[in-house]
Design a protein that fits this description.
Radius of gyration: 19 Å
Order of helices and strands: HEHEHEEEHHE
Helix content: 25-40%
Number of helices: 5
Shape: elongated
Strand content: 15-25%
Length: 171
């Protein structure tokens, strides 16, 4: 998507189309106004998504939601508990973004809710593939976060201790 600011004349439209075809235009990114977060859950918008999610010094868990999605509404209290669990971890960010109101180039969730972990260093996202709709699943999400953020040795420990299979699949 590109945004044309100039006057709509035949010459301007042709020049705009030519520049777009040659890749000389930056895409227009739809973004809600930035919101100052209060509490452990960080609200992302299109304009700050990459700055936060791809921060190489942090592990970032992101919930992509639609404000009209019933499953997303059920996940909010569960996800808030996950954010509270990691609130004192300075290298972990638990965030969410309304993926309908904000454009996120190169990220197109197949459905909602979608939860992705952007691990520090790699930043290749890992998708959560567990259940999302009951409060006991906040423990599974927390276990996921701890397992995925931990070393392979610690991951094996969590799998033995909690009987946890990997709650996320690597793609």
């Amino acid at each position: 998507r590109f945004h044309h600011d100039g006057e709509f004349t035949p010459d301007n439209v042709v020049a705009f189309a030519h520049a777009a075809r040659l890749g000389k235009l930056l895409p227009h990114i739809r973004s809600s106004p930035s919101v100052k977060s209060s509490g452990p859950l960080v609200e992302l918008v299109g304009s700050n998504f990459f700055e936060v999610a791809k921060d190489p010094s942090k592990d970032v868990l992101v919930h992509f939601y639609s404000s009209t999605c019933g499953h997303c509404k059920k996940l909010f209290p569960v996800y808030t508990k996950v954010a509270e669990h990691f609130a004192d971890e300075p290298e972990v960010v638990v965030a969410q973004i309304d993926a309908i109101a904000n454009d996120i180039p190169s990220v197109e969730p197949a459905g909602y809710p979608t939860v992705l972990l952007y691990p520090k260093g790699s930043k290749r996202p890992i998708e959560y593939d567990g259940s999302r709709d009951s409060s006991k699943n906040s423990k599974k999400m927390v276990n996921f976060g701890e397992v995925e953020l931990a070393s392979p040795t610690t991951r094996a420990y969590y799998e033995r201790k909690f009987g946890a299979s990997l709650f996320f699949s690597q793609e």
